[in-house]
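Researcher: Before we compare anything, I want clean individual predictions. No alignment, no superposition, just each chain on its own. First chain goes here; please echo the sequence and then give the structure tokens.
Model: Echoing the first chain and its structure:
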Amino acid sequence: MKCVMMILIMVGFSCQSTKSTSANVSKDEALVYYSKGPCLGKCPVYDLWIYHDGSISYSGINHVSVKGNISRKLEEQELKELKRILNKDSYGDRVFKKIRDRPITTLRFNGKEYKYYSNKIDGALKEIDVKLKNVMNNIVLNHENKEG
């Protein structure tokens, strides 16, 4: 009987710890989510969330100059430019064919998700890809300058 009670208490505590993590800001509420996936080599792997208020959350995962989490805020003009690019209607549906040893880029905004290879896109999707890479590079560069 004591064993059963101990198990119930442990399960109760483990459930409580998961409740507090869901109180954080949901990553699903982001204006845009941008992610670079792994390859078989040393491709940078990171996630980037940009929220409607301009706040940014970067998570460097592997083969990046800054690992871990960084939080920043976009300048007002940068946020306006990003929203302008995201509101273009020319993204369309794309056929995605997985290729071995190529890092997959995942882009999610306006309720849609795009998976692609950065070197295989053009037009409006290329424009947003370049913009988000620049945002990520600026975050990392500013972080390195503050620490250096």
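Researcher: Okay. Second chain, same rules.
Model: Second chain and its structure:
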Amino acid sequence: MTFGVLSLVSLVAFEAMAVATAMPVAVRALDGLSLYAWSFTGFLVTTLFATAVAGQLCDRYGPLPAVAGGVGLFAVGLALAGAAGSMAPFVTGRLVQGLGAGAILVGLYVLVGQVYPDEFRPRVFSYVSAAWVLPAVIGPLVAGTVAEQLSWRWVFYGLLPLVVVPLALLSRPLARAGPVAMVERRPGRVRHAAALAVGAALLQLGGQQLEQQRPLLGA
């Protein structure tokens, strides 16, 4: 089970950080410089939104719908980005990946909290944190090499078969895990998450536009 958890976290971390080195190649191929920022901003925004929605799912139904649905969305996003013929569907794929990533992470944290005994739980959470390190260190090199030597599309296609094995390994623990708590539905939580996501998008896009204008201001 631990291998399945860490594998899924590593795949999400790879798509969140390591693909940065493949993005310039993809943008040139798709002639989509104007939408380049949304490749990253969109992923972040939908991840933030999905964490709130997945939290409600886990409260009511347990981590199974969040993890299984998240893996499905993540895989669909990978396929959309890899098959994109222009920048708009590529960004759409990144948006869907973000939804899947947010749901996966929340569901996995809930799963670890429910299934592991108290004495092992801190150690497993430390492993989960460490699972972000390897993709951050070697992931950019791997993604850049794949993009240059094969195709930027394989940075996304290559992960598709890798999401199946961890989900299979986690199928039994997910089936055993139950709802976090029987709580009332709170639509306001989703609205707040949507507002937070929009705010994050505006801040990030504003910062990127300022960076683009800085050479003009200094001229």
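Researcher: What stands out in the second chain?
Model: Confidence is low (pLDDT under 50) at residues 210-219. Additionally, The two ends are 57 Å apart (CA to CA).
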